[in-house]
Amino acid sequence: MKRNKNKAVPHFNSIDELTNYFDTHDMGEFYEQMPEADFEVDIKRRKYLFALDAEIARKLTEIAKARKITSEALVNAWLIEKIKEQTSSNQQI
């Protein structure tokens, strides 16, 4: 593909205009004009997936919605509580 280095990046008044333009144009035409991106990625963070019974998942979602939090936040909070209980009771034995 031949790139036109003289082609200027158009000005857009909205994100919609920008996305509509690049739906029909090749961003590679403007590669030389694009600023270098610099960012860090934390690859140490992990998410773990666990299978739940459908009824448990439904009830969790219902409770989370009532509390206006995500199901993930609710499960994590409850698990933290339970782990603290278990850790405390094991230390007392």
TrEMBL record:
InterPro entries: CopG_antitoxin
The protein's name in its UniProt record: Uncharacterized protein
Taxonomic source organism: Candidatus Desulfacyla euxinica
